Amino acid sequence: MAIIAMKFGGTSVADLDRIRHVAGLVKREVERGNKVAVVVSAMAGETNKLVGWTNEAARPPVEGIPMEGSGGKVLQPIPDQREYDVVVASGEQVTSGLLAITLNAMGVKARSWLGWQVPIETSAVHGSARIEGVPAFEMKRAIEGGEVAVVAGFQGVAPGHRISTLGRGGSDTSAVAVAAGIQAARCDIYTDVDGVYTTDPRIVPKARRLEKIAFEEMLEMASLGAKVLQTRSVEIAMLHRVPTRVLSTFTPDVGGTLLCDEEDIVEKKPVTGIAYSRDEAKITLHKIPDRPGIAASIFGPLADAGVNVDMIVQNVSEDGKKTDLTFTVSRSELARALAAIEKHAAAIGYRDVTHAADVAKVSIIGIGMRAHPGVAQMMFRTLSDKGINIQVISTSEIKVSVLIAEEYVELAVRALHSAYELDAA
Amino acid sequence: MAIIAMKFGGTSVADLDRIRHVAGLVKREVERGNKVAVVVSAMAGETNKLVGWTNEAARPPVEGIPMEGSGGKVLQPIPDQREYDVVVASGEQVTSGLLAITLNAMGVKARSWLGWQVPIETSAVHGSARIEGVPAFEMKRAIEGGEVAVVAGFQGVAPGHRISTLGRGGSDTSAVAVAAGIQAARCDIYTDVDGVYTTDPRIVPKARRLEKIAFEEMLEMASLGAKVLQTRSVEIAMLHRVPTRVLSTFTPDVGGTLLCDEEDIVEKKPVTGIAYSRDEAKITLHKIPDRPGIAASIFGPLADAGVNVDMIVQNVSEDGKKTDLTFTVSRSELARALAAIEKHAAAIGYRDVTHAADVAKVSIIGIGMRAHPGVAQMMFRTLSDKGINIQVISTSEIKVSVLIAEEYVELAVRALHSAYELDAA
To answer: How many angstroms separate the Cα of A137 from the Cα of each of A1, A118, A183, A245?
Structure first.
């Protein structure tokens, strides 16, 4: 009699009929003799409505007045983040209560658990809090006593007993963290796709569903642009070794992908999957002094401005005195990054700065890479054969990422998918 | 520098523009040098939507299946009340967060407090819980430190850290209980009318707004059908001597009615106000044995069935053996009351039972009644002059209620309003 965690996203609980369908899946798990914790998102659309309200509430009464510190520009004011969390967390609260009502009406004993009740303890970074612990002792006892626990996803409780939210997609993280907290035998993530694919099936029709994927590979896939699972949820699954399945709410009996330990994967191809991301922008600083401490003078101010820098490449200087440095940030952070660089222009001492947002990142991922030499070389040759120029390269033990012009993304992904023999028969 | 509690109902916070108007009223109070706790209801319409969802969630998947114990009738199943509270309480949560965001955006430091955070401790009777204490020490410190406390009305926390709700209109009760809990100097209930009237202005155009009303009178008015304030809120205001004002959100500077101690009212007319209620039904048991214990055999089963009995009249028996007994219940409880009576028919031993729902209760209320004899007599004569038959009479120290045919309600109220010289000039 195992404890199973199940998670259903916003489209799976979009209305009362779908909530009833979800309740049916939970009931089936109970009838199999399992104890169940089920984590739910807000009904599709609710979160956007609530976020819209918080933005409207934060708007100054008179339109078009520049905000302080905006340099005369009219900015969208940001709502108080702690109160944003209070408003937005209500979406998952409603779903958890409704699913508990539905289960009870079906004769399945159930109760809802909000973030502060579980508790799901988080950091104080409201709006994108980090789960720090799930000491769910009371809830676990209730589950062991035969009651289904319906957990409101996406939310937790921050220091000072304030409601916090984990940021978009946080319900996956809630689910895996709850599964770890109650030592569940498995965490089933029900979603609108039937598993993890070798790449995005929308651009590669020959993409194949993976039966299994190693935690490390899934972590890279998620970080590098595959949108099936949130990165943090994979981190937690990996850290606590929670066997996690991705499967479809609407066809739960076919397919699915199991996230597991590397050792559990028998056949290790050199490349397991191909990810891509269009949310990339490139900044180049020209003719910066080639001296110790120059990197710190650039990336310090960017870190202070809350900009995440991804790939970095520095050319060898021709004369030992001046060099060029290129790095990438997400597109939404480009303006902030440029502002931070310009503010510290004197300290950095570059000649000029250029930027581009029409770039994309394509990555190959596979734990088999460690054992197969020449994997990166095949990537470079494949892209070269298609006439695609590589602007920046970044590698780790199990992935190679390249930055290319955005217009080549589909071509690059399809060519690599074939080159690494991932195409479905 | 006093602490003021303010309360705004659903129509006052119906949308973001109205929430901004409410924030303006709060800001004004802060600028006057007051410390403020503001209690809010859900945005108008939200509670009904959420209640509808809970009912839909509780519906069995196949329509038209009789519920267990329904005697073959298809009943609307009742949602799990604890989960009902989780869903419905989200409405006030959203409003409190949005008002806090709006206040912060206006430069007024504010934070939201949910029922479990304040805490507003209640009984475990989910769906209509009773406030048992408001040990709001942390919140009071925050208010004294200059932060506006935005309290989610209508909700509390029941034993076991479960969310509870107080039942419809509960936000008034939240406001007065919070005012008492933080020793506020005053509780201002902002609503869509500008005060308490001598009677319902919709049926008596000459009704006058009262400048002041004694707690005891307001309690009777609320119990007897005036819908301005919830009965329980007046009870708490009276118990803790919280000076409470009723005033209009939309014209806050004119009018208003102050609930105060009897001693603070100088001119005491015999009758202060006239209330009426159409939510009445009458049950008569014919030819019951005139013996000790007969009342207990009737009202015991009714109490067990959760039926509140209001007025009771027992005729003197003609022969010392058999008598008739009439009592009233609210219309919504009529079917339940009849079922309980019929179930215990043998033990009671009545010959037959009749009932009527086309009755209404009209009441005169006034603390001056104590000092003025003949007040009830004037009521009976006035009704008699209009040809209105009195079916049942019930009195207390400061009120007289009569049950009459419903069709005479408006006529009776208007005639009494004139007779007691309450008409506006």
So the answer is: 18, 8, 11, 24
